[in-house]
Amino acid sequence: MTEYYIPTAHSETELVEKRSRFIGQVWRVSSEEEARARIEETKKKHYDARHNCWCYRLRQGGVERYSDDGEPQGTAGQPMLNVFQREEVTDVVCVVTRYFGGVLLGAGGLVRAYTQSAKDALDASGISVVRRWVALEVPCTYAQFESMRREVSAFGGVVEHTDYGADVVLSALLPEERAQDFTAHILDLTAGGVEALEAGEQLKDVPWREPVRKI
Questions:
Q1: In this structure, are residues 48 and 100 in contact, taking their beta carbons and an 8 Å threshold?
Q2: Rounded distance, CA 128 to CA 3, Å?
Q3: Other beta carbons less than 10 A from residue 118's beta carbon
Q4: 3-class SS at 155?
Q5: Which of 73, 88, 102, 131 is the most buried (most CB within 10 A)?
Q6: Which residues contact 152 (CB under 8 A, 6 or more apart)?
Q7: CA 10 to CA 41: how far, in whole Å?
Q8: Which sign, positive or negative, has the C-alpha torsion 137, 143, 146, 147?
């Protein structure tokens, strides 16, 4: 089974540390060309910034690259890359733009600021899991609806959408290796009252960790 994690969406966040502004951005990418295009796009947009530090990770070929863009060696690009390595997120590019505020942060302060900026941007993006899923239609009564939602979640699945009529039909995605167990469990739980119907298989990305919106 192939399973890997990618950013859900483009994000942009801002962190202010001792008057320096750190603008973090994350994108989903599929090639080095696309990653470098995002980096160049950001450099043009923030041409007046002191630094545009970046990193990217690609699943194909296991490519990892980073740049401190003039910051002291090891204080920006590598700490940013470490964020995505820890979270096992790939097919991603991150750029952190710094507008210098006149106060030196020191090596430790820079590492903390660039790490936090990358993490904030990833949190705002959200994380999706890419894997093979089995699509199931789960018809149930309104009284059973919340219970069925919980069971889908308990088996590592997600409810994509719900149709409301005389009864309810949940369109769910279950990990392929758990779909049969889920179907059997639902039959047993409802004494044969609810039968999940298979509607095909698909390889796709599904949100795994929702975006974090800071107030």
A1: no
A2: 10
A3: 31
A4: coil
A5: 131
A6: 138, 158, 159, 170, 172, 174, 182
A7: 14
A8: negative
